[in-house]
Amino acid sequence: MTWSIVARDPDTGHFGIAVASRFFAVGAAVPHMRGRIGAIATQAFVSPLYGTDGIALLSEGHSPDDIIAILTGRDDGAQQRQMHLIDAEGRNAAFTGAKCIDWAGHLVDDNVSVAGNMLTGPEVIAESLRVYKETSGAPLAERLLAAMDTGEAAGGDKRGRQSAALKIYRDQDYAWLDIRADDHTDPLGELRRLYAVAQERFLHVAETMPTRDNPHGLTDRRLIDEKITALEAARIAEGRPSPSFATPLKPT
Fold first, then answer.
1. What is the DSSP string of 27-50?
2. Which residue range forms the structural domain that includes residue 15?
3. Total domain count for the chain?
4. Positive or negative, the Cα torsion across 232, 242, 25, 20?
5. Is residue 26 part of a domain?
């Protein structure tokens, strides 16, 4: 019901997952991550335990290959499931059960894997991987979105479109970016809009949040407020409309 890409930026250690499906709220079930630990996508006849227990096993130091063996070995339904994952060292692995609905399969490359089932054909994941690799040097979020857009153009989920999600973790236990289109005629297009909205204010605020290394975060709100105000003024001066659906700010 799904195809997804799981990636690690080797320069920063950040993790990202993008996923799309003709299924409601795919972002609620497929992506699982933890900063400095790893990222897992669990899909097909999805088992959330592959995500939750897989992250726990990664945190204990198990390799991706071992985790697949552990999780599928205890599961009578494993042949209907699919998963792929990567750890903090860049080791990755993937599994596609023999009973996943065609077309189903996966590709594993350096610091990235792509997997899907119920697809129009293998070109969906092949094209997604190609574009991800070709956009090296771009921000991780943009590489993941470009990969998914190309996979959709190659056929995507053979049943159609409904939901998509993009999640990125840096080095914390909370997401740096977590956006979802749960029920939409163009879910990947909606992710693009949400990512553009996030760049107006949210991602700048995210840079100020407390971290393990700096539990205080940025304590002077004026600095971030001034930056956001300047960006907003530049957008207006250039005549660019905001992609946000938010109501105008009310005076406080």
1. GGTSEEEETTTEEEEEEES--HHH
2. 2-184
3. 1
4. negative
5. yes
**Which tokens in the block code for residue 165?**
């999600």
- Taking the model in full, what pTM does it have? 0.95
CATH code where residue 105 lies: 3.60.20.10
pLDDT of residue 26: 98
Distances from the Cα of 8 to the Cα of 5, 49, 170, angstroms: 10, 22, 10
What is the SS3 assignment for 91-124?
A: CEEEEECCCCCCCCEEEEECCEEEEEECECCCHH
Residue 221 falls inside a structural domain: no
For residue 52, what are the CA distances in angstroms to 34, 187, 191, 216?
10, 25, 25, 29
The Cα 95–Cα 33 span in angstroms is: 18
Q: How does pLDDT run across 186-205, given as a tens digit for each residue?
A: 999 999 999 999 999 999 99
Tell me the per-residue pLDDT of 123-167, one tens digit each, with 9 for 90 and over: 999 999 999 999 999 999 999 999 999 999 999 999 999 999 999
The pLDDT score that the predictor gives to residue 120 is 97
Residue 160 resides in a domain:
yes
DSSP annotation of 185 reads: S
